Amino acid sequence: MVEIGKIVLDTGWLAARSTDVEINGVELTTTHPPTQPESPWMEAVVPGTVLGTLVKNKLVPDPFYGLENESIIDIADSGREHYTFWFFTTFDCKPSNNQHVDLNFRAINYSAEVYLNGHKEVLPKGMFRRHSIDITGILHPDGQNLLAVLVYPPDHPGRIPPQGGQGGDHEIGKDVAAQYVEGWDWMTPIRDRNTGIWDEVSTTVTGPVKIIDPHLASTFFDGYKRVYLHSTIELVNKSAWVADCSLNIQVSTELEENTFLIEHLETQHVSISPGASIHYTFPQLYFYKPNLWWPNGMGKQHLYNVDITVDVQGYGESDTWSHHFGFRKIESHIDSATGGRLFKVNGQPIFIRGGNWILSDGLLRLSKERYKTDIRFHADMNFNMMRCWGGGLAERPEFYHYCDLYGLLVWQEFWITGDCDGRGDPVSNPNGPLDHELFLLCARDTIKLLRNHPSLALWVGGNEQVPPPDINAALKNDLQLHPYFMKSNDSDTSAITPVLKDPSQYLDGTRVYIQGSMWDGFADGKGDFTDGPYEIQNPEDFFKHDYYKYGFNPEVGNVGMPVAATIRATMPPEGWQIPLFKKLSNGYIEEVPNPIWNYHKYIPYSKPGKVHDQILSYGTPKDLDDFCLKAQLVNYVQYRALLEGWTSQMWSKYTGVLIWKTQNPWTGLRGQFYDHLHDQTAGFYGCRSAAEPIHVQLNLAKYSIEVVNTTSEELSNVAIEASVWDLEGECPYYKTSEKLTVPPKKTLSTFEMKYPKSKNPKPVYFLLLKLYDVSDYRIYSRNFYWLHLSGGDYKLLEPFREKRPPLKITSLTFIKGSTYEMHMHIQNTSKKPDSNTPLYRNNFIRRNGSCDESDSSEPFHLLDGEKHEINLYEKIRRNLSREHSKAKVSEVNGTEKGVAFFLHFSVHASKKEHKKGEDTRILPVHYSDNYFSLVPGEVMTVTISFEVPPGVTPRVTLHGWNHHSGHTIP
């Protein structure tokens, strides 16, 4: 008997262009199967796309490198046959009597013919639908099975007009498919339109009865003390006799690794007629004070394991299903004070600070590992929501799994965008896809696929557009809220009213449906184009009351230049040329980028007539390295100011903001906090600072100090330290506030900064703010600004680069297999000015529910001699239980005192010899902080974690504005 369950078919695939294969699917899967990757067959990427397979086999160049995409023929010119491909594999499966086997495709694009052992099945159209074929009767008796899949591109792949634009000629909007593939103002066209088996392929083995699409829902009473779990499942009896079933549902929680506590175990009995399909609802399960699931920054992401099994009399265990489930309630309404949509989780309002998400990779090279990095990066930035934009994907369960783990709420849109569904050049079809029933079938199937994830917060009909009236009406009906979720009833002390239908019997019933991204509490709420803007801004403008009129901005964008190493890794030398700076008659500068940057959608750091060039404010860049470093300074300032400006008016004017956009699914040069290679920009750390749950900040418009408390607890017994530092390392201004109490969910304005109004202020200076606990001087929030006087610029920072303040770096390295965790302890050892400040050590307070995986190890201070270093080293080594660990102390010599400005780590592969321009970076890397600065005497601890490729020894390098020669920590 074959073990019941799922086997993923993700290895051993071959592929060939259909026009190069002279035999049919029956012959391929009977008498003439391909046996190895020889012409016309090649190794295939499954899950993946045709173009991904061609790139893997080097039959086309990397479309994300330089201008190479231009050398790949577009489907509009080649015809659909050019990207119609065969995919072939073999698998072993020999079920016993009374076992049933299904072949499952979680998604294909766009339609396909499936041949198994000479038998043909058709997979109908639609990019966002699952397919399941009962193959029990056509499996080969010896267990060796031959599978061939002929995949057809979308029916309407469209053509890219000369003017480009959003969604090309919009023909792709006639299909139920991702619309970004014809290109956008941030994306080049995808030549095969993502044709392929782009998601998981598997076989599942069951007994006579199969479980299909369980639905879990929870209801809360008595202030979230009394909780009920509701569950409904579909059961299919595949046998020819009545199946007497025992249904078991078990809910457990993991106490520690591989140790579980069973909270509930319930058994029910049901009989199912031969060949019948039934829906069965379990009796509700009662929990008292369960651990709740909270978004990032509000608490921990507690997840329970829900296991459902069906046992059939005379057979035994027939099928099983497992899922992580989080007890949480998400509500939203239009806030009367701001007009913006306000979200509440478990009864607590949450100020939304998040980003727009397109997809992980433009060629759909999706993986759990890449998803994990993507989602953790968003949590590391202290974000709490991701919007899955309507021109991209219905995101995959793996995406949602990591959002569940890291606490990212998800706004999931369906596949409607205004550009392809009613406007644009040429004007697009306003009636959405041609086949409305297909759209609704895909939508309903997507809902079933994703609805059990606690991170899923709301469904939205489309991007900057409402679906056609019949689709919109159907979605509103399908996604109507269960009465319990229509209004808050947290104070209700009674049990669930028996007359109410069980919420798990709804298609969803627990999440709101909003018809479009600018309707019903988003932007102006009426669908007018009141999101944006999308370019560089004067940082102080974000704080002004008239900057943005509406309560919740679903899209506001900005710059996103990556580091120089990424430019060199993704472009030939002619792409390393920095923009020309063209002075206009009005005194503003226009940036003129090279053609490769234009192709990669570069967005300039100037807005002639509104914003002077922000890179030139630091001095004319000399080369690519200089340009990209100055761009990082601007990235940090822009995105920190954006989020701080919104948070400054939390609840009084705004309920949330989503930045357009957090990353690029290719090697683009705009709107990103990390690049396609997974290296972060400085904007990443500007956001990380600004979006702290507890944060101290400077209001750039009023020049006052504010304390932000987004938590549900009052913050008491705290004070603010504000110190100004000049370029000579002196501290001309120092102030501590009186003891403060900050109410929960509040932005509190405190004192006005007096320094710029004092006598003889320096034209460029640094401001260091710290919010600390008065009783023990531990730090809640640290925020470092570089500022200039009104009407000035930062050009004095150019000669400041020659300063060399000394540093002491103590590194503790822990190694477990290929995993490295390094604790870098950095001290600016230049002489401290005479001051009574107590806050040089930066002993940060870690909060429960922090997204940092390294927070289990407390910050360490290695300033009190070798003995303390050794004792602490041993303590951390024991706690982390690494296989190998080592400590090292190194000095960076410097004779001048002053601020160590804009320090940043990077991790590289150690090589005795490497080619000039070779990218030695190890990516991805998670840093607890980066692009930071240290005043004289100050100490910072940075945790660095990463995986090392086999056979590679890593080295960590520290660079900085005035440490640009680099320092390597082996």
From TrEMBL:
<keyword id="KW-0378">Hydrolase</keyword>
<dbReference type="Pfam" id="PF02836">
    <property type="entry name" value="Glyco_hydro_2_C"/>
</dbReference>
<comment type="similarity">
    <text>Belongs to the glycosyl hydrolase 2 family.</text>
</comment>
<dbReference type="InterPro" id="IPR017853">
    <property type="entry name" value="GH"/>
</dbReference>
<feature type="domain" description="Glycoside hydrolase family 2 catalytic">
    <location>
        <begin position="342"/>
        <end position="471"/>
    </location>
</feature>
<dbReference type="InterPro" id="IPR006103">
    <property type="entry name" value="Glyco_hydro_2_cat"/>
</dbReference>
<dbReference type="InterPro" id="IPR036156">
    <property type="entry name" value="Beta-gal/glucu_dom_sf"/>
</dbReference>
<dbReference type="GO" id="GO:0005975">
    <property type="term" value="P:carbohydrate metabolic process"/>
</dbReference>
<dbReference type="InterPro" id="IPR041351">
    <property type="entry name" value="Ig_GlcNase"/>
</dbReference>
<dbReference type="InterPro" id="IPR013783">
    <property type="entry name" value="Ig-like_fold"/>
</dbReference>
<dbReference type="Pfam" id="PF00703">
    <property type="entry name" value="Glyco_hydro_2"/>
</dbReference>
<dbReference type="InterPro" id="IPR006102">
    <property type="entry name" value="Ig-like_GH2"/>
</dbReference>
<dbReference type="GO" id="GO:0004553">
    <property type="term" value="F:hydrolase activity, hydrolyzing O-glycosyl compounds"/>
</dbReference>
<feature type="domain" description="Exo-beta-D-glucosaminidase Ig-fold">
    <location>
        <begin position="883"/>
        <end position="962"/>
    </location>
</feature>
<dbReference type="InterPro" id="IPR008979">
    <property type="entry name" value="Galactose-bd-like_sf"/>
</dbReference>
<feature type="domain" description="Glycoside hydrolase family 2 immunoglobulin-like beta-sandwich">
    <location>
        <begin position="210"/>
        <end position="328"/>
    </location>
</feature>
<dbReference type="Pfam" id="PF18368">
    <property type="entry name" value="Ig_GlcNase"/>
</dbReference>
<dbReference type="InterPro" id="IPR054593">
    <property type="entry name" value="Beta-mannosidase-like_N2"/>
</dbReference>
<protein>
    <submittedName>
        <fullName>Mannosylglycoprotein endo-beta-mannosidase isoform X1</fullName>
    </submittedName>
</protein>
<dbReference type="InterPro" id="IPR043534">
    <property type="entry name" value="EBDG/EBM"/>
</dbReference>
<dbReference type="InterPro" id="IPR023232">
    <property type="entry name" value="Glyco_hydro_2_AS"/>
</dbReference>
<feature type="domain" description="Beta-mannosidase-like galactose-binding">
    <location>
        <begin position="38"/>
        <end position="198"/>
    </location>
</feature>
<dbReference type="Pfam" id="PF22666">
    <property type="entry name" value="Glyco_hydro_2_N2"/>
</dbReference>
<keyword id="KW-0326">Glycosidase</keyword>
